[in-house]
Structure prediction request, 235 residues.
Amino acid sequence: MEVMYNCWHGCHKKSEGCAHCYVYRRDASIGKDSSIVYKTTNFDLPVKKDRKGNYKYPSGTSFMMCFSSDFFIEEADPWRKDVLSFIRERKDCSFYCLTKRPERIKACMEDLDLYPNLTIACTMENQRRFDERAPIYLSLPLNHKEVMIEPMLGKVDLSSHIHLIDRVVVGGESGEEARVLNFDWVKDVREQCKKAQVSFGFHQTGARIIVDGKLYRIPRNRQHSQARKAFKDQY
Ligand code: SF4
Prediction:
């Protein structure tokens, strides 16, 4: 069972990939300020219990964390230790989060070995952010190293660090103002992964994609399924 677990909400734009952040877009549509970071009512979701004293979410649950914030945002520093204790308590479940702030991971987590059930993936949306974040992120003693190139904003050469990566996931941008994804960039990353025997995934096409020089608009409900169909051997 996969469960969204947003322990806090709100964020600050960090780099080019944040330009059309869906958290900001969604909040703006209801007049909410996304830059205010607050603890949600679901803060203790993984350890919530029912009347009989059993965990509400059973063993084996996958908690997808912090999809309306960044787990390593500064404002959450006083709250993070509680969430880390929930992750240690629920060793029978897995946790996944994405960050654009790999430079904060070490200072925010005392001992990364205590979290074999937590995957921290890092977003590197273009060559500039790959060159900046990959050396920091990939030097950490993480059990699984996943590079997320989404929204992919240009061609990315992974060669300097590809030997340290376990998995690469690429994807386009959704929304009205989505920047264009060129399918040639996706194929190029896939080739690099194939050569280095690194796992590869094409997560979503985004709303606008160029294939063989032609621009296509992909409706939201087909962006994931179209990407899945693009390569037979990606997962
Ligand atoms: S880091 Fe993620 S959640 Fe935060 S502003 Fe950027 S895209 Fe949005």
